[in-house]
Amino acid sequence: MKMLINVAETVVADALRGMAAAHPELIVDVENRVIVRRDAPVAGKVGLVSGGGSGHEPLHGGFVGPGMLSAACPGEVFTSPVPDQMVRAAAAVDSGAGVLFIVKNYTGDVLNFDMAAELAEDEGIQIAKVLVNDDVAVTDSLYTAGRRGTGATLFVEKIAGAAAEEGRPLERVEALARQVNENARSFGVALSACTTPAKGSPTFDLPPGELELGVGIHGEPGRERRAMMTSREIADFSVNAILEDMHPRNPVLVLVNGMGATPLLELYGFNAEVQRVLTERGVPVARTLVGNYVTSLDMAGASVTLCQVDEELLRLWDAPVRTAGLRWGV
Amino acid sequence: MLDADFFRRWMTATTASVDREAERLTALDSPIGDADHGSNLRRGFTAVAATLEKEAPDTPGAVLMLAGRQLISTVGGASGPLYGTLLRRTGKALGDAAEVGEQELAQALRTGVDAVMQLGGAAPGDKTMIDALVPAVDALGESFAAARAAAEEGALATTPLQARKGRASYLGERSIGHQDPGATSSALLIAALAEAAGE
User: Least CB-packed of A130, B44, B174, B186 within 10 Å?
Assistant: First the structure.
């Protein structure tokens, strides 16, 4: 497998050095693996810290900046960051108004953020946490670790980020973040497996004529494998899987997200089919975002995330944002 | 009696073994996880070995607490907090005695394993590291060699199980037929303990 890297061990550090060079508006601490908006801490503003394994770019470092995250902690590829990174990030962005940790529901992320919250509170930083668990492909039961956190993370980070920017208190920012998560659902499809630099070969075996339905964002296989389907059929399957689980009465935000190796030509075509299904099912669409936002290295495929919004959430979604990966209204 | 030197030997032997087996651990993690268990643990234990060399704590408890803290700070994922907690809580239970008996170690390790079960919410049979650690602790009262055999048997016995915790649980029935990487690395940790004891 050919990759544009030096050696697997330095992939994350090399990417961070490149990010620092491209984005002088960010403080990129390569050694400690923390990305902070340069003007942090902003007086009176709640800090927003997110993080997770690397390999999902632009998530999360690409979402640091005015209107979204205050700081991000990238872990090793597909491995959650360690508590030291999160504590350092919290200390860098806390203005005294407290810090919200945005955590995707994966065992490693949850455990490390829990430990970090304890350590940060010991240092006198007020911490709140929101858990993102939007993936309908995984059933929540006593016997699983619960639903995975995927595409809704972007909605949570953007809307909570806008609320924090307006100077809302920690409880309110946390409540809004929770509201976004509760109103968001995702479903993902893989057309190919991804290759991690550490392993150097595809993380799972997906024959050329097949696709994986309900895939996660770490190259972990989904729940079901079928013969390759058309964009139309995949859109029907994905959107219906989401609508079996949520029954939106309000308009929805739509994220048609590429997994990393699917061109925009295909993503836009897929979005046309997603919009068709939503129209057929009578679901009004407020805003649509198409692109590679929550990726999985070089995996081909896409995920759909819907988030039901009221007027306030929509206004916060539309609020200005200036980050490397998401930018409007400025 | 077991002194700080014994515990340093245990950690050094674990580091060597994880380094040797990293690729196998990652290969086991590939079909049911995300193919990084070996590289993550290797990074962690390499840091543990370096720290122990530099700081040289002089009680068994301090050796394990320092090693655990180092794992939490360097591994990430679920393995960092879980292995870190295992060693930290075992070390804490040993207190600040300069030497500990084998029965004391067995008891302390049981405290550590309980802490891991509580943190990860896993029970025996969930296809996790617990499936190697619990039988190992049960057998530790007998001998180090018996603990090693029990851990290895426990790891092998995870193959037919369906995962109910961690990332492999998302696979449902498709996790069946794969040996759990966490139970496998736990068996390496216990084997290194026997090695440190010369068994």
Answer: B174
**A307 close to A286: Cβ distance less than 8 angstroms:** no
Residues of chain A with pLDDT under 50: 141
Contacts with A168 (C-beta within 8 Å, 6 or more apart), sequence order: A46, A176
Cβ–Cβ contact A216 with B under 8 A? yes
Predicted ipTM?
A: 0.88
Tell me: the pLDDT tens digits for B49-63?
A: 999 999 999 999 999
Instruction: Compute the distance between CA of residue B71 and CA of residue A28 in angstroms, rounded to an integer.
Output: 24
Predicted confidence at residue A219, as pLDDT, reads 67
Q: Which of residues 1-60 of B touch A (CB under 8 A)?
A: 26, 30-36, 39-40, 43
Rounded distance between C-alpha atoms, residue B67 and residue B49, angstroms: 8
**Size of the A and B interface in Cβ pairs below 8 Å:** 107
Q: Which residues of A touch B44 (CB under 8 A)?
A: none
Question: Tens digits of per-residue pLDDT, A280-311?
Answer: 999 999 999 999 999 999 999 999 999 999 99
A218 catalytic per annotation: yes
A56 belongs to the catalytic site: yes
Cβ contact A80:A108 at 8 Å? yes
| Closest chain B residue to A9, measured at CA | B39
Classify residue A169 by burial, with Cβ atoms within 10 Å: 0-12, 13-18, 19+.
middle
CA atoms of A80 and A97, how far apart (whole Å): 26
Chain A residue with minimal CA distance to B172? A223
Q: Could you report the per-residue pLDDT of B134-189, keeping only the tens digit for each?
A: 999 999 999 999 999 999 999 999 999 999 888 888 788 888 999 999 999 999 99
Strand positions, DSSP E, chain A: 26-29, 34-37, 47-54, 71-77, 99-104, 127-132, 184-190, 210-213, 224-227, 252-258, 285-291, 301-308, 321-322, 327-328
Summarised one tens digit per residue, pLDDT across range A126-142 is 999 999 999 988 765 45
Chain B residues near residue A76 by CB distance under 8 angstroms: 36, 39-40, 43, 76-77
> Would you call A111 and B75 a contact, using CB atoms and an 8 Å cutoff?
no
The total number of residues written for chain B in this structure:
199
SS3 state at A289: strand
Q: How far apart are CA A135 and CA A203, in angstroms?
A: 20
B26: which chain A residues are within 8 Å (Cβ-Cβ)? 198-199
